[in-house]
Design brief:
The structure holds two protein chains of two kinds. By secondary structure, chain A is an all-alpha fold. In chain A, 74% of the residues lie in helices and 1% in strands. The chains are: A mainly alpha, B mainly alpha. Chain B: It is found in: Cell membrane.
């Protein structure tokens, strides 16, 4: 048992080769089955979205042309290929609605990521500094809201932010305000909704980074006369940076395409791309344009997604 | 590490948790409100729960959701565990970069994109939208969450246990079921629970992937929320929260007792 406890980090690669582990068919299946599943249900659908974004709307089922048909053979396929156009993308550039929706999505997602970081950092820091016996409980308390339905948590804010809602009742009772504040159906409500819903996503990676931090570094800096604030920026923040990157991406990326929050908390004035895509698809039934909207959104997210994957891969490497 | 818990730390934690929990607490409190006005307290009542159980549409939707969540969580757990094994055990195979990309990307992919792309796939292959398509969609995104949860357990897993079993003549399959599976089981269980709640909660992907006859509970709640806040929805939400809270609580108690048992076993083993 003692020997087992000491060899905590074996190198997996030679073990897999030496044990004859890789030879059994069962082990091949471990790769092949999830690979094919994700290929067919995750990657192929994107190729279809891309193809339909180049199609033209039609009054038919499915509501676009051309439709590739296997029975027409290669010639039919090549004919159909000629019918593909970039018109939908041109349409997106011509109509200011889409451009504004992209810009306001990026702005809202970026601002709410910064607010979430500002709110989440003290919480994560406090958790990392808490007595060790208390930390699992605190961690559990951060994770618990994540298990509760997203829709329910957004819905809960409607009752709070309404003009006759609980927040306004409370503020009037306190005597801070005389007339109810209009918060629901404004961008402020969207910010509150995003910060609230995604806060656990920010706190968890930050906590993971801060918990590993050696706090004696900060103490040493302070002993040498470094003021607390500059010790924070020179030591704590750089050491927490992997957590900051991972947390920010976990908030920014889904917030960009968010639909439920702008739809329930935002007003008719608020443009966000997730809502635009939804309306284009469900209300206008324009499948090609909504596909083009999705492709552009995906292109905008490629860089953040790669940043996230790198941060993820690096933290996994460290754990090995 | 020297743990001096400053006043600033305590205040920020208290405020943070207040922010996280007050909306949920208010939602639960007002589900017991006598008045139809959700924001004015008029006395305690459980009548909205009674209304809830007479709302056949809501009950049907809850039943659909429970079945979708159970089936998709189970299949996603199997596929996600396989994906986690593939990622941690096989550092080199053709297409590994693509594979890990396909496992991690759905975690952050905006739901509208996942939903739209799956819907277009189902239309392209001529699959009628309904129960089956929602289940397939939920398996696809929740298996990636299971993979991440199980992977984090597998990384800290002591491979020498498996080597010892195989040196003693156990087949790889037997080794997996006798050694690996029991060790990673807590991660698999929490993966299943995560997949179950993700499926239970999902609105956007279900709205795209579902068709007539397979309205899930979030879709039903959403269509009612758009008409306004009612205590009936508060009651439905409270029940959902209670189910999830009890589940998480049971899981953590089970995990804790397993952990205590494991430590006791280890101490016993070291004494010999």
């Amino acid at each position: 048992m003692v020997q087992l406890a000491t060899s905590d980090h074996p190198d997996p690669a030679p073990a897999a080769a030496a044990g004859g582990f890789g030879k059994a068919i069962g082990n091949r299946l471990v790769i092949i089955v999830p690979y094919l599943w994700l290929f067919f249900f995750f990657l192929v659908p994107f190729l279809i979205v891309f193809k339909i974004s180049l199609s033209t709307t039609a009054i038919a089922m499915p509501p676009y042309v051309p439709v590739f048909r296997l029975e027409e053979g290669l010639a039919g396929f090549l004919d159909s290929l000629g019918e593909l156009t970039l018109d939908n993308y041109l349409w997106l550039t011509e109509d200011a609605l889409y451009f504004n929706a992209y810009v306001s999505s990026i702005t809202i997602a970026a601002v709410s990521t910064l607010i979430t970081l500002a709110v989440g950092f003290p919480i994560a820091y406090g958790m990392a500094r808490a007595p060790a016996a208390l930390r699992p409980t605190l961690l559990m308390l951060v994770i618990l809201p994540f298990w509760t339905s997203f829709l329910i948590r957004v819905y809960a804010w409607i009752g709070i932010l309404k003009p006759e809602g609980l927040l306004n009742q409370f503020l009037i009772w306190l005597g801070v305000i005389d007339t109810p504040l209009l918060i629901l159906n404004t961008n402020t409500a969207i910010y509150i909704g995003i910060v609230y819903s995604y806060l656990p996503f920010m706190v968890l990676p930050l906590y993971a980074a801060l918990e590993k931090m050696d706090y004696s570094l900060v103490e040493a800096a302070q002993d040498l006369g470094c003021p607390p604030i500059s010790a924070f920026w020179k030591i704590t923040f750089p050491l927490a940076l992997p957590g900051v990157v991972a947390g920010s991406m976990l908030v920014f990326i889904p917030a960009m395409g968010e639909f439920v929050i702008p739809d329930l908390l935002g007003g008719s004035q608020t443009l966000m791309i997730g809502k635009t895509l939804w309306n284009e698809f469900f209300n206008n039934r324009d499948w090609p344009v909504s596909s083009a909207v999705a492709v552009i959104l995906l292109l905008l997210l490629v860089v953040p997604i790669m940043l996230f994957q790198q941060a993820q891969a690096r933290s996994l490497e460290k754990d090995r | 590490m020297n743990t001096t818990w400053s006043r600033f730390n305590i205040v920020s934690i208290v405020l943070g948790f207040a922010f996280l929990y007050i909306p949920i607490v208010l939602l639960i409190v007002f589900s017991f409100n006598e008045s139809r006005l959700v924001t004015v307290w008029a006395g305690f009542s459980t009548k909205w729960y009674g209304e809830l159980f007479r709302n056949q549409g809501l009950i049907d939707a809850a039943w659909v959701t429970a079945r979708v969540a159970f089936i998709s969580a189970t299949v996603a757990t199997v596929l996600g565990t396989m994906a986690a094994l593939a990622l941690t055990r096989y550092t080199r195979f053709r297409g590994r970069v693509l594979f890990s990309g396909m496992v991690f990307a759905p975690l952050v992919m905006p739901e509208v994109i996942t939903g739209l792309s799956l819907l277009l796939l189902f239309v392209a292959i001529g699959l009628d939208r309904g129960f089956l398509t929602v289940t397939l969609a939920h398996i696809t995104f929740s298996m990636c969450f299971v993979a991440v949860v199980v992977q984090s357990r597998l990384i800290s897993f002591d491979r020498s246990l498996e080597e010892a079993a195989m040196d003693l003549g156990a087949t790889p399959v037997k080794t997996f079921f006798a050694i690996t599976l029991p060790v990673i089981l807590p991660a698999i269980v929490s993966g299943w629970m995560l997949a179950f709640t993700l499926s239970l909660d999902d609105l956007v992907i279900a709205s795209f992937a579902s068709g007539p006859g397979a309205t899930t509970l979030p879709m039903k709640i959403y269509s009612q929320v758009r008409l306004g806040v009612t205590p009936e929805i508060n009651a439905a939400c409270t029940i959902l929260i209670a189910i999830v809270a009890v589940g998480v609580l049971i899981a953590s108690v089970v995990n804790k007792s397993r952990e205590v048992q494991r430590q006791r076993d280890e101490q016993a083993a070291q004494r010999h």
